[in-house]
Design a protein that fits this description.
Elements (H helix, E strand, L loop, with lengths): L2 H11 L20 E5 L2 E4 L4 E4 L2 H4 L8 H13 L11 H13 L4 E7 L2 H18 L7 E5 L8 H6 L16 E4 L13 H19 L4 E6 L15 H11 L3 E5 L13 H4 L7 E4 L11 E6 H6 L17 H16 L2 H16 L8 E7 L2 E6 L15 H12 L1 E2 L1 E3 L2 E4 L7 H24 L6
Parallel strand pairs: 3-13, 5-6, 5-7, 7-8, 8-9
Antiparallel strand pairs: 1-2, 2-3, 4-10, 9-10, 11-12, 12-15, 14-15
Bound molecules: pyridoxal-5'-phosphate.
């Protein structure tokens, strides 16, 4: 691309307030411009190729540059671009609802369409408040969530999010939201076994319900594997035990499958097939269209809807773009491709290879933990492997690794001292080799920088 044109675009881009933008530095630097995509790769204005390590924002499941989805969207727009979901229905949203209810576990057969993951979780939470009001249980309003969870950027979903950084300078609901410990076994107490750690988490949960009174606790919400909290895989059996406690105390269970859905764990939904639970509500987004179009969905159990069927009450909740025809067309084609190209089977087959390869990173003195499940991974950097002190010096090591990776043609997602990966599900073994090689070198180069700057001594 011509330099003048690129400078012009950079100038215009400074008019955009981007998500998670720093107020001080915004407008002072040029963001990387991505102009093309294909397979697991993104290309910048100079034609430089990058492996898209995070798969966009954990959403690029079938890979970039698929032409069939574009065709399906175009055909749908030409046939019917929009009708109001408040008063009419479209064939395509009804088709998608039917496919989702087939794919979902248990009796989760009713679908509410949203525009993204935040609005899917917001809908789930608002629905539960509505449900308990109708059932004349106005006090059953408390939500239990976990530290390091991420559930979205609306007021309510931002409030149930458990990431401290994301709470800076914002206001949040505190009265009916309770954050429990995150299930990060890497940071369990010294000498504690994983089983003891799990027992502690489960006890903390049950104690919280007893403290609040089960008549006041509405729901528990959890990502099966925490994504942007640092790719946190819970201890074996943890989710199932929490789910059983929810049933014991009549507390609803919301499984946030915004990241884990549509193949990332090797299944359309991981709640039942991987973690052996059938939640009352599943929320999903991202991989539902592989990020080609914005769409979210909430899957409700028949029981929930039946419980309030007799009552005359309007569900005054909805979005102009609930079930947008073009987005539903993208989702249906995406699901068709996942099935036809046996992408779930591919993930199941390649998952051990991905995690085994990443073990090589332990050779580096600053890599303390390499964890993950499905095609998701988190690499946590520490000052000392024994003390596990997080490697946050003058600036978080994640940003240095990010800068070094970019030079090598790899995009990662830095979260302070953690790098997370969730590449497209079609990634091959040789592409995994390439990704790990680049990441290894980027971490090595970042360590060298620390040494040169006198921030690290062997
Ligand atoms: C687990 C989880 N839930 C919800 C969301 C919010 O989704 P969205 O950004 O589409 O609103 C995200 C986004 O990263 C997520 O990771």
């Amino acid at each position: 691309m011509k330099n003048d044109y690129v400078s012009e675009i950079h100038k215009k881009d400074k008019l955009v307030l981007h998500p998670y933008e720093d107020m001080e530095s915004r407008g002072t630097y040029d963001r990387k411009l991505i102009v093309k995509s294909d397979n697991i790769y993104l290309y910048d204005e100079n034609g430089k190729e990058y492996i898209d390590g995070p798969g966009g924002m954990w959403c690029n499941n079938i890979g970039h540059g698929n032409k069939e989805i574009g065709e399906a969207v175009k055909n749908q727009l030409e046939k019917l671009e929009y009708c109001s979901p408040f008063s009419e229905s479209s064939e395509i949203s009804a088709e998608l609802a039917s496919v989702l209810s087939e794919l979902s576990p248990g009796d989760l057969n009713t679908v509410f369409f949203t525009t993204d993951g935040s609005t899917a979780n917001d809908t789930a939470l608002r629905f539960i408040m509505f449900y308990n009001n109708i059932l004349d249980r106005p006090n059953k309003k408390h939500f239990i969530t976990r530290h390091k969870a991420y559930h979205g950027s609306t007021y309510l979903t931002g409030s149930i999010t458990g990431k401290d950084r994301e709470k800076n300078n914002f206001d949040f609901e505190k009265n009916f939201i309770h954050h429990l410990s995150s299930p990060l076994s890497y940071r369990r107490k010294n000498n504690q076994t994983i089983e003891e750690f799990c027992d502690e988490l489960v006890k903390e949960f049950e104690d919280k319900i007893i403290e609040l009174g089960s008549e006041n606790v509405a729901a528990f919400i959890a990502e099966p594997v925490m994504a942007s909290g640092g790719c946190i895989v819970p201890p074996e059996g943890y989710l199932k035990r929490i789910w059983q406690i929810c049933k014991k105390y009549d507390v609803l269970y919301i499984s946030d499958e915004v990241v884990t859905g549509f193949g990332r764990m090797g299944h359309f939904f991981s709640s039942e097939e991987v973690f052996d639970i059938v939640p009352d509500i599943i929320t999903c987004a991202k991989g539902i269209t592989s990020g080609y179009m914005p769409l979210g969905a909430v899957l409700f159990s028949d029981k929930l809807l039946n419980d309030i069927k007799k009552e005359s009450a309007l569900f005054f909740h909805g979005y102009t773009y609930s079930g947008h025809p073009a987005c539903c067309a993208a989702a249906l084609k995406n699901i068709e491709i996942i099935k036809r190209d046996k992408i779930l089977e591919h993930v199941q087959e390649i998952e051990p290879y991905f995690h085994n390869k990443l073990q090589k990173l332990y050779e580096l003195p600053i890599v303390g933990d390499v964890r993950g499940k499905g095609l998701m991974a988190g690499i946590e950097c520490v000052i000392n492997k024994d003390s596990k002190e997080a490697l946050i010096l003058d600036k978080a090591i994640g940003s240095r690794i990010d800068e070094e990776s970019i030079k090598l043609g790899l995009i990662i997602r830095p979260l302070y001292h953690i790098c997370v990966l969730s590449p497209a599900l079609i990634i091959t073994k040789s592409q995994i080799d390439d990704l790990v090689e680049k990441l290894f070198t980027a971490i090595q180069n970042s360590l060298q920088q620390l040494k040169t700057e006198g921030l690290w001594k062997d």
